[in-house]
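step 4 of 6: structure.
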Amino acid sequence: MNKQVICIVCPKGCKVLVSEENGVYTTTGNACNRGNIYGIQEAIEPKRMLTSTVKINGALHQRCPVVSSGPIKKELIMEALKVLETISLSAPVTIEQIICHNICDSGVDILVSRTMGKTNDL
Amino acid sequence: MKQNKVIIIGGGSAGLACAIALREKGIQDILLLEKENELGGILNQCIHNGFGLHMYKKEYTGPMYAQHHIDRFMELQIPYIIDATVLDISEDKIVTVSEPKGIYSIQAEVIVLAMGARERTRGNIQIPGDRCVGVWTAGNAQKYLNMDGYLVGKRIFILGSGDIGLIMARRLSLAKAKVVGVAEIMPYSNGLTRNIVQCLHDFDIPLYLSHTITQIKGDGRVEGITLCQVDENRQPMFETAKHFGVDTVLLSVGLIPDNVLSEKAKVSLDLKTKGPLVDSELMTSTPGIFACGNVLHIHDLVDHVSMEGILVASSIIKYFEDQDSLDLIPVKSKGFLNYVLPQSINPKSDTVLLKYRVSKPMTKGFLRIICNDQVLLKIPKVDLHPSEMQSFNLTKVILDKINSNVIVELSDE
Ligand SMILES: Cc1cc2nc3c(=O)[nH]c(=O)nc-3n(C[C@H](O)[C@H](O)[C@H](O)COP(=O)(O)OP(=O)(O)OC[C@H]3O[C@@H](n4cnc5c(N)ncnc54)[C@H](O)[C@@H]3O)c2cc1C
Ligand code: SF4
């Protein structure tokens, strides 16, 4: 297997070619070792941080921003977003409060990324 | 008239960091004025992660980064007013504010300009075509989506490949809109590689480099756009015209420091940065008026905005101790540089952080600090890009050698 990925670890953006032979992964094109680690991870199982918003009632805005507790498998992102669409929060919420544990069995939680008070408390 | 020692205009990252640092240094009489209904500024709508890498070695989201500062601000019980728009400031530092309790004036000893930036609009870049609904600036579309849950369109074309445009391409795709393409008039993108990969490649969104929108068509609502390739002089080549059916156009064509107020106080502006001319203490041409954050020059990283706010706080302390004005030493840029900040060195400064942007992408270059035709420093640089602000610290040892005009030069040899 051969896979071309662009390393995003630093602004240089090396084009890294990841090759696999008998379960052994090698990379070429990366100017440093961080590109090797990133390239192999990206070729085997790409992961992304997930940020979005969920509905909130009784707060200053209609939506509350949320973030995943760590990177989540890329293929699970759309499914995870569907789960978030079903969640509705009520103010107040506090930064880093968990609103969904182990979303889509990814091992990752979803947290609110800011504090939002109740509007009549303001 | 009401009086305050320090008035800070704007409660974004710059204003918050400055207020916190001032209070931590023992200044009690501070008033922060914010025109929106909450503190935090632009960060509140930037829900993606990637904030705070330099200051906290963490990847906060925008709201998280803001929350940490707001919590500290509240803990220090610094006085502030929200829904408070500053309407005018005068040369003698009288601030006129409109807030829910009324319109009144306050005499300040020091004013901190921290009003941030506004987005360039269709008017600023003049795209011909019909005047129809569905043309948005990327920042406004971001605010509507992330704070109110309102999606601006279903089939979208984005003009401009800076980070804000790229971040919105991903955000809209995740919100199930179809982003048909992103056009960039320059032959290179102004966004981070990371954003090109994670915001465009991940969603198979094409990036059209050296292209621009030459026309927007629509009767009432946007119906489509014409995209043309441009030549070396950035002039459209009409024989390359392609049509795309879309209902929305997003403009991500840059930010302009918001200096309407600064001009009222007769603060001189730099034609290149579009922000105030400042010395190394970040004081403007009007003594006692300081500037930090996007109102001074456009930043790509919030960490640098906060650090500017903190620097202004230190400068204000020095200003209160000693208001004698010393002769400033002008700083000029030369070679492949768009600008250098500050525009002058104040002999009071112990160190000076020079900030600059290059005028074209360069894989390697040399930065020279020149005074009296003598090269004081020659620093090799690699991988320079116009979208990434660079900085260099002039230490006391170098500053001691500087006695007249300084030239900061970037060349390829
Ligand atoms: C869309 C977007 C995405 C970004 N993404 C990243 C990123 O991924 N990582 C990163 O590190 N940085 C990012 N940045 C850059 C960084 O976040 C900003 O440069 C920084 O937050 C600007 O802070 P500021 O305080 O200068 O301005 P602002 O946050 O704009 O604050 C200015 C405040 O002043 C107030 N104000 C203006 N005029 C008046 C007036 N007359 N009276 C009273 N109040 C007034 C405004 O309401 C506002 O709250 C991004 C910026 C934008 C715009
Ligand atoms: S391989 Fe190393 S040098 Fe190249 S982009 Fe990745 S981190 Fe940067």
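step 5 of 6: annotate
 - Chain B has ten helices and 27 strands.
 - The longest helix of chain B spans residues 302-321.
step 6 of 6: archive
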